[in-house]
């Protein structure tokens, strides 16, 4: 037997528009015997395994090279090479060691984050029941090939895309593919419209969807990357990942630093050469300037800060793949959330009940059998036995006491409702077995079962029917009310109004009815004909309930200025109802409606639209792209394969821990607990981390500008031959002094009210004019106070020997950095506000190190300092204290201005 046609050779006519027999023939299979083992092996070799290809993760060396390519590290490498070239071995080794530290730390943290994600993926090989050589056998689903005949039953995961050959009451839940939570009735009937949408292809089943009811035999039409799941996975490769906002801002900042650093170096070298200094001395001076002008600790700090943030997120059940994604969360201005399993529980639940003309609410959610049926106080409590019998007997699903469901999730909701009414489904079914039934079918939209039930002590044949309200009502002639049974005409309008009310709430509505037969009656010959002359009992409204934390999480997000939109495969009316309960805002649209809009029209409509129903994967991708084009930093949440492409397009794709492997590969963050509220917590942490990075950059750039100004002024005005501090002193300040104010910034608690601020403008970089002004002001303070000792003792200066003025300048610069770091940890808030004790403890370490560097002989020789007298220490301390005092004064003035503006507005 020859192999099946490849995807490229496949006829243009879709499988779902061809008769089942024709599909089997086209796939060169046999309806009864399936494929032979030999043919299956050959097709497997031709088509490859039935699995979704995953993106190959970067190797350790690739990650390390990416770290080395960071512009800051490239500049440091240049400094190290030049230092070794001019025989400044100690300087070259120290700078080279810093580069290695940056690369090792960054690589380690990136790989650790990736390992956390990999640990979430549990290796498992699904099984499939397949007919080969006329025998039913169980094989690994990865070995399926086109043409295989696969047997399915309730509870199975569909292993590949296939055309239904025969079926009995088949339903599948396709939330993983389409996002629609309600099961889809399926049968072998051929569809005629080649434009039928994916969710309406009722004669096909799709990989990774679940069989919730019935049985079927299907012929496999597509496997692996040719399945609908595979095609969505293929879309991911077309989506190119963009740099995070932090990456873009640091790249911008690096450009600024490059101009400053190398511009200053050029000025110093030219000035030195014009002055007639030796070339080696001039290059050494340029190296000192470069070390001063390059924030050598920036890559390490950013990695440490993001690593710290990733650990905090992990503690809150969120895992990020790349460290920069931690910061991206803080810039989020729009969240596009999937509904099923993300905002909702993905557990169908009866929420409302219309019974005998009265309304009741049902407490409890999900598949837990706890809760009660509530009603208006003061009214008589009806007997629910007729409804309880219908709920338990006219359904097939089972729900264990710990919430494990086998069968249709909608029927599971009915079994749980029965339990809340005091009825046990398994006991009831065992006591009153079926004598006949009409299985559910999408053609007539109802199900009926017949049982012998004791009625007033007499065993009586009773039929129970459930189905769509319209079709059940059409078969009813009477209605059970609180006052007894009345003609249907008396209550039809009230029932239709109740159905409309439930539907407008986004509930899936089922009607229940029953019929008692005369003694001796039988329906076994024609049960369908017996589904008539029914007595209407009531309506139940079923919904996939919200997660308990979702509404509060949406409120916090909107309060933080983040637009939250819900995007789902369910109908738009359901989306609108759920969105109303969540408090999302106005406006609902269907996928067809947004597809009819041009990009410009949809962009204009977006502010008025917050719920989208019946959307396709392409719609989700388009919405994310258009929002990004409007300047939003977009987070997209989802757990199904149909979310994967949009997750990859988004700035921060958030996959659910229970979601598909494809979604986890596409996402940048995984919520282990599937909790939408965790995303809002992650945004709060992301904002805090960005604030810390801004504080760090403020501190680091103030240090940088102070040293740049110091070296430029010393060179231009020939102060100590242009050498105000030695290269070792600058490295000591960067390595051993500045690191401790950075730790204080890192450990500073999250400020109150951070989620009351609007999202930051991603177009406003770290190096914005206002920020740069502050860097110059704060850096100017440290520069002036450091320059003073060099000016008051010019006769003691020497560029070759340790001396008091240079040592005092070193002390003032060190103490100014320590005190300045304390007050610069917050802005515009005071850096002296509580909690401050932990900060003081950390800053006592560099204070001690500064004293050791000046007063201990071994350190004097290493750093190039001399001991200072008590008066010289007091002078240096007084100059350094001017830095925090003036910075706090500037912030106080700025806060007063902000208060006045707020009062005026």
TrEMBL record:
Q: Where is the Cation-transporting P-type ATPase N-terminal domain?
A: 14-88
InterPro entries the record matches? ATPase_P-typ_cation-transptr_C, ATPase_P-typ_cation-transptr_N, ATPase_P-typ_cyto_dom_N, ATPase_P-typ_P_site, ATPase_P-typ_TM_dom_sf, ATPase_P-typ_transduc_dom_A_sf, ATPase_P-type_domA, Cation_transp_ATPase_P-type
> Which controlled-vocabulary keywords does the entry list?
ATP-binding, Membrane, Nucleotide-binding, Translocase, Transmembrane, Transmembrane helix
Q: Which PROSITE patterns match?
A: ATPASE_E1_E2
Q: Where are the transmembrane segments?
A: 74-105, 253-273, 279-302, 696-717, 729-750, 771-792, 804-824, 831-853, 873-893
Location relative to the cell: Cell membrane
Pfam families named among the record's database cross-references: Cation_ATPase (PF13246), Cation_ATPase_C (PF00689), Cation_ATPase_N (PF00690), E1-E2_ATPase (PF00122), Hydrolase_3 (PF08282)
Membrane topology, as annotated: Multi-pass membrane protein
Give the main location.
membrane
Please give the catalytic activity noted in the UniProt record.
Answer: ATP + H2O = ADP + phosphate + H(+)
The family annotation for this protein states: Belongs to the cation transport ATPase (P-type) (TC 3.A.3) family. Type IIA subfamily.
User: What is the name of this protein?
Assistant: Cation-translocating P-type ATPase
